[in-house]
Amino acid sequence: MADLYDLHPAFDYWRTGRFGGHGSANTAWSEKIALDPMLDDLIMTVELVFGSDSPVYVSTRPCTNVSGMTGHVYRWQPLLESQPAIEMTYSMGESSSSARSFTVRLPSSLVDPTVLISKNRMLGGIGEVSLTYDGADYDDRIVIIRGEMDAGVSFGPQEGGTLETTITDPRESADITLPPYLITRGGFPDASDEAIGQRFPLVFPEWSHVPGHYVHKGTLDSTSGNYENPTVLVSSGTMDVTAVYVDGKSYAAGSSVYPWEVKHSTDANGSPYTAVYFNGNPTAASFDLSEAVYATVKTPGYTSGSPIYNVNTGALEEDPIGQIRRLVRDYSLLQRPGINSQLFAKAQARLVNRKSRVCVNAGGSANTSTISYIEGELLASLPMVSMVWEGGGYGPLVTDRMQADAATAYLIAGQAPLLSRATVVQESPKSSTYNEFTLRYGYNALEDTYDGTAYRNGTNSTLCAASQKMVGYRPQDVMDSIVIHDEATAEYVLDWLVAHISVPSYYVEYEATARAFFDLQRADNVRLTDSAFGWKDRIATVETIRLEPGRCTVGFRVWLLFDSVSGGAFSSGLAGSGVPEQGAGGGGGDN
Predict the structure, then answer these.
(1) Which residues of 403-424 are buried (b: 16+ CB within 10 A; e: fewer)?
(2) H or E segment at 106?
(3) What does the pLDDT look like over 499-554, one tens digit per residue?
(4) Residue 405 has what DSSP assignment?
């Protein structure tokens, strides 16, 4: 699947990965930051490529870099008026990513728009915004945005005029229709009319009731007007089929009524598929093509009790973070170069032993796309995962205050790196606090029902009970998950909801030393101390990091209420009992 699409132009042009060529925590940057802790000598550079092959190099200050890999010399012209703030933020519980943008205004003399247009070339191209030092290795630059001139280009006369464009993360242009293969008359000349325009279902690692499409009607019986030996497409690629259902009833492969076998082939366009071929016999029933055919489809070698490892994603087939990586890598224009591998690795380490299943079979007017499916369908069931654009790539963040033991830093207000408080403390709205959660999982597409239901409320969760005493009874809408099929993952999702939205959280920002931009990462848990509020080693999650010349601002989501959530805080069926103790004074003190 890796060669299914062309790579997005921005990632094809800069094939060096997220951080230029080497990495964020390399020796060169450590040495630079040690010598320049306030980042006074840091330079922002912008590389613009107009019309696909007309590059322009501008920066905030004069700068020359040499690529250690190629020997190419990059001379940046100091034409950027100032270094704008670089802000990285996200919202816990929101899966959708937001494309960032960076506006650049240049003299028209740097690139002659009329020449490109006269050659039937468009001006809009690609761009990259990076941070570097004068004399540093070009391949050590830290990429902030790598994308395209999505909003077009405006320009004046070449002499004395200006040219303006905006570099944007390629959220829209890298996103493509999912699944990729379409049932067409050219691919399947004998397909039923209803099948035309539908897409080959995409399944991994397993789906119990995949709806099929008649791609070969079979032999017409002129007497009955029915068809014999039809072929029903149930998946793209080469998959196993372990069960077949016709009009809701299961039939074994050797059935005398609907005997079947698995067929692996390609359509006339070369698109691979897996189908059920009803091989027939003298007593077999015929089809009028109104029969609904479903199949259980799974990755070859996969069983739920013995999951298989996918060497391409570095994860189990049922691992949700690995599934996201596979979707982005194989079914978008981002592919491997557009993946933020650091974010994926960290998310995978935080979201362990969780399972999900993927089945995408949209077609006709109900088409979806890869990023829309990830953020709108798959992650609707996993609220702890948020997708973001960072460092010129796309990746997941996992928020989980329950992993407080993995704090990445102990921070004290008034001591470096936190210099002073920048805002007041803001409590989250009461309207976003809930204390009853219901999750239906194990979706059965054949019956349009859910095989499992799990819940948390004041009767089985002491934290929900405590929440009801504070804000009253507040049920959240029932969550229906078609991707979660196991009880353990469903229970974890409910525990996460209880821990994060059954009681208020608190947001505050601090002015910090500039190097905090490199030392702290979004969604990381830290231990925060602020004597002005009586906080000592309170759990806080990094939510916002904003870099401006000479300084950095860091925003934290602080968990003041019941910060030692565990055991009976979630469910009375777990170890522990009783309402967790709350720090005095609305979260003050040391639990």
Answers:
(1) ebeebebebbbeeebbbebbee
(2) strand 101-107
(3) 999 999 999 999 999 889 989 999 999 999 999 999 999 999 999 999 988 789 99
(4) G
**3-class SS at 256?**
coil
Q: How far is CA 580 from its chain centroid?
A: 34
Q: Which residue type occupies 135?
A: G
What are the angstrom distances between the C-alpha of 362 and each of 194, 248, 367, 466? 13, 21, 5, 43
Establish how many alpha carbons lie within 13 A of residue 499's alpha carbon, considering only the half-sphere containing its beta carbon: 25
**Is 68 strand, coil or helix?**
coil
**Does residue 571 have a pLDDT over 50?**
no
Residues ≥6 apart with Cβ < 8 Å to 576: 566, 567, 568, 569
Amino acid letter at 245?
Y
Q: Which SS3 state, helix, strand or coil, does residue 427 take?
A: strand
Residue with tokens 């493509």: 176
Whole-number Å distance between alpha carbons of 128 and 72: 17
In the three-class reduction of DSSP (H, G, I as helix; E, B as strand; rest coil), residue 473 is classed as coil
- The pLDDT assigned to 121 comes to 80
Rounded to an integer, what distance in angstroms lies between the CA atom of residue 371 and that of residue 387? 9
> Tens digit of pLDDT for each residue in 181-215?
999 999 999 999 999 999 999 999 999 999 999 99
- Mean pLDDT (the chain) is 88
CA 347/CA 322 separation, integer angstroms: 10
Compute the distance between CA of residue 278 and CA of residue 218 in angstroms, rounded to an integer: 9
Residue in 113, 119, 114, 122 with CA at minimum distance from that of residue 163: 113
3-state secondary structure of 406: helix
Q: Which residue has the tokens 């004074």?
A: 585
**3 state DSSP class of 388:** strand
- Residue 232's identity, in one-letter code, is V
Strands 525-530 and 410-412: parallel
- Class of 400-428+504-560 per CATH? mainly beta
Cα→Cα distances 99→335, 353, 368, 388, Å: 17, 30, 19, 8
> In this structure, what is the dihedral angle of CA atoms 500, 503, 504, 507, given to the nearest 10 degrees?
-30
- The set of long-range contacts for 303-311, using a CB threshold of 8 Å and a minimum separation of 24, is 304/206, 304/486, 307/205, 308/205
- When pLDDT is cut at 50, 70 and 90, the band that residue 233 belongs to is very high
**What sign for the dihedral angle of Cα 22, 26, 31, 37?**
positive
Q: Is the peptide bond before 417 cis (omega within 30 degrees of 0)?
A: yes
pLDDT tens figures, 393-426: 999 999 999 988 889 999 999 999 999 999 999 9
Distance between CA 4 and CA 25 in Å, rounded?
Answer: 33
pLDDT of residue 583: 38
pLDDT in tens, 58-115: 999 999 999 988 899 999 999 987 788 899 999 999 999 988 999 988 888 888 788 8
Q: Where are the domains of the chain?
A: 9-168, 177-298, 400-428+504-560, 429-503
* Residue-level pLDDT at 195: 96
pLDDT in tens, 28-73: 788 888 888 888 899 999 999 987 778 899 999 999 999 988 899 9
